């Protein structure tokens, strides 16, 4: 992105990484992507009782260009899938996806041809949140876990190495078709 | 055209609501910092219960898997042998998996369970980063060993026959004698 991406890795970046991580997690703006009943719980997350502005997340951005996090709340139909992908592509990096509820995470009880069996078929998911729908506390908990992940995100050359390592792990992972039991 | 009363009074009345709210107590729940208990019968993560001597209650009948509307449960039963006993009866659940990315926490499995082996806890902080980690194995779901319990496999420790064992009289006697500590697992 800016200067911090071009700096060589070394002593300087460890502090900058921590600082950048802190700033990133402290103004973590979600994009609105409410699709079903989970969206009602997501709205409650933003409403006074579970006040998401305590974590600097009160602005649900209708414009993906201003958003860092996409909370996919609800079942994604096949028809909605390209729209979801486009919203994700329009978001500037670093961007994160939270699959809220079982339908977004794996298709949930809608194991049929109309529903995408998990948004990880379309976009990379950083946090899976089970529940049908998850209560706002569960969403806050997932966001907090995501915050720790963002705090640890690296910069510059470290980040490039991290991405390469993640890619390697993903390529070597067992394909879902070869998995047994519920992971089939 | 609005009347004079509407033009002058209505903004005051409107902002009056804003002003009054300043003196009300905030309703915000400070969730990650102070956790409020859920409703006592909240449907949270599952738990596989044990008999007072540590044997599993699950008999591997798969009724929970059949009742599940989301096909989130996978059970594979196996037979107990005299050398390796996991549950008091003939069968036990050898493989027990719950996919929390399918489970809708409806509780139909709990209703279906004939031995009360499967119940739900109030734990709800389940979010994780991968699909694999959200498939809970039997080891993740089994209730912790309470004092007096022993890790299966082991033979029936309480009661002379099965009737004595299941009715809980032997367990009650053992607690009274002090050889087994009483606890939540010591019911029934």
Summarize the structure.
The complex is a heterodimer of chains A (about 180) and B (about 190). Chain A is an alpha/beta fold. Chain A contains 7 helices and 4 strands.
Q: Would you mind describing this structure in some detail?
A:
- The complex is a heterodimer of chains A (184) and B (188).
- Chain A is an alpha/beta fold and 184 residues long.
- Chain A has one domain (3-174): Rossmann fold.
- Chain A contains seven helices and four strands, in the order H-H-E-H-E-H-E-H-E-H-H.
- In chain A, helix 5 links the parallel strand 3 (96-100) and strand 4.
- Chain A is globular and about 50 Å long.
- Chain A starts with a helix and ends in a 12-residue tail after the last helix.
- Chain B has a domain at 46-176: Alpha-Beta Plaits (2-Layer Sandwich).
- Chain B is built from six helices and five strands, in the order αβαββαββααα.
- Chain B is elongated, with a radius of gyration of 26 Å.
- The N and C termini of chain B lie far apart (75 Å).
- Classes of the chains: A alpha/beta (184), B alpha+beta (188).
- At the A-B interface, helix 5, strand 4 and helix 6 of A face strand 3 of B.
CATH architecture of one domain in chain B: 2-Layer Sandwich
Count of discrete structural domains of chain A: 1
Q: How large is the radius of gyration of chain A? A: 17 Å
What fraction strand of chain B? Answer: 5-15%
Report how far apart the termini of chain B are. Answer: 75 Å
The CATH class of one domain in chain B is Alpha Beta
Structural class of chain B: alpha+beta
Series of secondary-structure elements of chain B, N-terminal to C-terminal: HEHEEHEEHHH
Rg from alpha-carbon coordinates of chain B: 26 Å
The proportion of strand residues of chain A reads 5-15%
Name given to the CATH architecture of chain A: 3-Layer(aba) Sandwich
Q: What is the terminal separation of chain A in angstroms? A: 39 Å
Oligomer: heterodimer
Q: Report the biggest beta sheet of chain A as strand number plus sense, adding barrel if it closes.
A: 4 strands, parallel
Number of helices of chain A: 7
Question: How helical, in percent, are the residues of chain A?
Answer: 40-55%
Derived from helix and strand composition plus strand pairing, the structural class of chain A reads alpha/beta
Helix content of chain B: 25-40%
Question: What's the CATH topology label of chain A?
Answer: Rossmann fold
What order do the helices and strands of chain A follow?
A: HHEHEHEHEHH
